[in-house]
Amino acid sequence: MMRKAILSAGAMSLSVMALIGFSPAAHADNGACPKNSFCLFEHDNYLGGRAVFHKTTRHLGNHKFDNGVTVGDNASSMINNMGVAVGLYQDGDCTGKHYNARRESTDPDFSNNGFDNKASCLVVS
Prior knowledge:
Layout: H1 2-20, E1 38-43, E2 47-53, E3 77-80, E4 86-89, E5 98-101, E6 105-107, E7 121-124
Antiparallel strand pairs: 1-2, 1-3, 3-6, 4-5, 4-7
């Protein structure tokens, strides 16, 4: 009897989650960054130019935001829509101070962690 009640309750909770659109795999995808991508933004709150990455990219100074501004040392926010962590490094050879962007995460303002306008390299784990 107890087992039947537990199974019934479990089935009911799954039905409710399906109705409200619950997904156990949370994604950072908010429309400002394509799925399976890592995006850096020129300004806080995902504003200004946007640069989209899919793999490790050294020397961000050789890359431009979609508005033509150089990415290296000019990023202020990020969206990580990748299923892996991404490391941002202060030096173009991926050394020095770093910032770890957890998988499926966002950060609207790098100033709160001392990494505003410092990203020169990114490493996709």
